[in-house]
Amino acid sequence: MNITWRLAWRNLWRHWRRTWLTVGAMVFCNMLLIFLISVQLGSYQMMIDNSLGAFTGHLQLQHEGFDEEQRIRQSMPAVAERARQVQELLGAEAVAARGIAYALASSEERSFGIQVTGVEPEREPRVSTLPGLLREGRYLSGADGEIVVGALLARNLRVAPGDEITILGSGRDGSFAAAIATVVGIVDSGIPDLDRALAQVSLPWFQTVFSMGDHGHSVVVRLPNLEQVPLAVTTLQALRAEHPELVVLDWDQLQPGLRQAIRSDMASAWVMYGVLILLVAFSVLNTQLMSVLERTREFGVMLALGVSPGRLARLVGLETALLAALGLGLGVLLGALLALYLQQAGFTFPGMEEMNARFNLPERIYPPVTLASLLWGPLTVFLGALLAAVYPALRLFGLQPVAAMRAT
Amino acid sequence: MSAIVCQDLCKTFEQGEQRIIGLDRVSLSIEAGELLCLSGPSGSGKTTLLNAMGGLDTPDSGSITLGGRRIDQLSRGALADLRLREIGFVFQAYNLIPVLSARENVEFVMQVQGLAPALRRERAAGVLTEVGLAGLEERRPAEMSGGQQQRVAVARAIASEPQLVLADEPTANLDSQSATQLMDLFQALNRNRNVTFVLATHDPRVMAYARRLVRMEDGRVIDDVAQQPSGRPSVGRPSVGRPSVGSEG
Fold first, then answer.
1. A308 part of contact set with chain B, CB < 8 Å
2. What distance, in Å, lies between the first and last C-alpha atoms of chain B?
3. Which of A171, A212, A309, A343 could make an SS bond with A175 (beta carbons 3.0 to 4.6 A apart)?
4. Are residues A295 and A323 in the same domain?
5. Does residue B235 carry a pLDDT above 50?
6. pLDDT score at B178
7. Residue A188 sits in the same domain as residue A311
8. How much is the pLDDT for B239?
């Protein structure tokens, strides 16, 4: 080993208690960051799954402009056939066709505006968690005249399973669309906006009521994970050669607020992480500053022997890098063990199980162990520690050999 | 040929409101291969002169020429390089790096100089043997006596083969026997390597080894005499190859 490396390494252990305390602070901080970031990423994953799984799916095939304008005429023909084509192209199971219209729903006592969604009852549970969130009754069987409504809508209309609702709206051809549907189930998604307007009927009956022919408005795809989305989007772009009026929208385009919410949460979390990292950086600064100050005489001798201040600064930098590397290595090792354990055993806190059960989510978070969750935090701590060494190292440039050698 | 020439050196220090004269128009010419002692009481200016000659401190006025080159106007970096390659230093308090072994202490400066590892090792082993520390290369300073530590410091000073070695009170912390052994070593190195030695001391035992004695007082040279070294005139190469593991220091 090079003498400078040996010197740096041995200098670290001149005050082994101080060194271990600093390394310990870094290890603790790194473990905490790995834990927090893993749980954070896990909860984002859950948030995305929850959000997208409820209704949107990971991506949708739609008529261009439908997402923004939501006009009934912006439909695609042979929507069920298109859904099978998408299923085949992606080799994915969770693909379903939908039709969407806006109408007035009236019960005996009240009327409210609703979004009527025509769904394929046997396929919808694969792309949406809503069929699994029934509070009362059952899901659609596929028969004409059945409707499932959101909990708030049911409350507003004062209906229960078995009651009838009159639906009034406009058909795709501009004709008057009217039907009477029997409530078979009430869904409680826990998302008020959704529960206030949700009304699902079977797609064939929807197409009949709204004069859609074989048209529908979207093909919804749910993939095993987010990482598969870009490839799926690229694959589906091939459909546009045949049907240029169609667009493929991924989850970010379908729910732009979701990524924003995650970014905003991430930013606030990093403020907290920043404070933690700052504290560790100050601990390193303190250690290295003390180390430099108590070796002033030794540095003076080195300067007198002709060692440049820059080389001395690099020596202090190297000592800090070794210190930080020790904290990084041990922190990542212990943090990875903790994260792997949590990935297997899951993580929960009081009240979480009840809350998740309400949203049809797993009772525990299983934080994913990724390179990002393992290294983001610890590498930032490492860089923070290196930055903390800048001030002690810079002090060396101000040392005069004679004065420094007289230091006590 | 002169190894070092000082011309009209002046240096003052501020101490609170007091101005202290460190050097007062000091002129001195030291020939290559000399063993010269700067003597005088504390505060006479010998350390200040030594620091100025070694490029550790710059004079307020006057000039210093080392090997034909003016060094009093060199930049900080150039002075550091000069000290690294052309001047060896021996300090009163040994000033070894405590976490490095004797060999590593000697090698460290050579590494800074950019010497190849094999050459460093070979040269370090050679000089440590020359100063009588064969067998003690892997000991750390704390495991050595004062005399042995000072020998490591001497080995470090001469390892890079400087033309000039400056020693400030090199025997101040040594017992009589170790001091004598150290001076024997200086004398041998001076003779065998033709290295110029300038020693600042007020130790009469050290002065006895000098071939030239410069007395200073109040920052001025008050006496400059050549003398027949009387320390250990019969000493040729007293410590060469001789392990010194005894109880000195």
1. yes
2. 37
3. A171
4. yes
5. no
6. 84
7. no
8. 37
Interface of B with A (CB under 8 A): 51, 54, 56-57, 77, 80-85, 87, 89, 91, 95, 97-100, 104, 107-109, 111-112, 156
- Do A128 and A143 belong together in one domain? yes
Per-residue pLDDT at A158 exceeds 80? yes
Residues in chain B with CB shorter than 8 Å from the CB of A301 are 91, 95, 97
Tell me which DSSP letter residue A347 carries. B
- What's the gap in Å between the CA of A313 and the closest CA on chain B? 14
Q: What are A164's strand-pairing partners?
A: A182
Q: Is the pLDDT of residue A196 over 70?
A: yes
Phi, psi of A50 (to 5 degrees): -60, -50
Total domains present in chain A: 2
pLDDT in tens, A364-403: 788 888 898 899 999 999 999 999 999 999 999 999 998 8
pLDDT at A93: 87
Report for A146-155, A222-231, A251-260: range of highest mean pLDDT: A146-155
Confirm whether B62 is domain-assigned: yes
CB proximity A1 to B under 8 Å: no
Domain that holds residue B58: 2-96+162-226
Range of the domain at A296: 3-52+258-405
CATH code for the domain of B67: 3.40.50.300
Outline where DSSP puts E strands in chain B.
Answer: 2-15, 18-31, 35-39, 61-66, 69-70, 87-90, 164-168, 196-201, 212-217, 220-226
Query: Which residues are CB-neighbours of A80 under 8 A, at least 6 positions away?
Result: A97, A120, A203, A214, A216
